[in-house]
Write a structure and sequence with these properties.
The model has no long low-confidence stretch (mean pLDDT 81). Helix 3 links the parallel strand 1 (71-77) and strand 2. The relative contact order is 0.14. The protein has five helices and four strands; from the N terminus they run H-H-E-H-E-H-E-E-H. The chain is α+β, with helices and mostly antiparallel strands. It has a domain at 71-158: Glutaredoxin.
């Protein structure tokens, strides 16, 4: 009948949506077992993992810088700074690598803003390196990778 409005076509669309949603939910379910894990997860599981460090924390959070009698690296940053947050795992690994040989110190300038004037910080993060006598050897502003930090610390330890 021409005068009668057409029935809404939404019920079949809703049914199709429900069927597709169910299909995707079932196909994306890993099933909980390793035999159904994605190829990417299998590759991640196959990667060799670093041994877990269960000792005391190697990264020092102190304001006593430089550490007497040790080569020292001080990282000055803040939790609100993205490059500083990117440095956190690097600092942790370097601190573990050089435990008992060199001190790696982190100072949070968000919690201790007075320290930026003490160290003359112009940008975050700033890394300052001290030799065993406590003399400043050099500084770097911005993100610094693990290899570059290790190179400087190895040079300081060889003196």
């Amino acid at each position: 009948m021409p005068g009668r409005p057409a029935a809404p076509r939404t019920p079949w669309r809703m049914a199709l949506f429900a069927v597709l949603a169910l299909f995707f939910a079932v196909s994306c379910d890993s099933g909980g077992g390793p035999q159904n894990a994605s190829i990417f997860q299998k590759e991640l599981d196959a990667l060799q993992r670093e041994p877990e460090d269960t000792g005391p924390p190697a990264l020092r959070r102190t304001l006593e810088v430089p550490v007497p009698g040790m080569a020292t690296m001080v990282d000055l940053g803040a939790d609100s700074c993205m490059p500083c947050r990117m440095m956190a795992p690097v600092l942790d690994k370097v601190a573990r690598d050089y435990r008992d040989r060199a001190a790696v110190v982190y100072i949070d300038l968000g919690r201790h803003p007075e320290q930026s004037a003490r160290f003359g910080v112009r940008a975050m993060p700033t890394q300052i390196f001290y030799d065993k006598t406590g003399r400043e050897i050099g500084r770097h502003e911005g993100y610094m990778d693990r290899a570059a930090i290790s190179e400087v610390l190895d040079t300081l330890l060889a003196r």
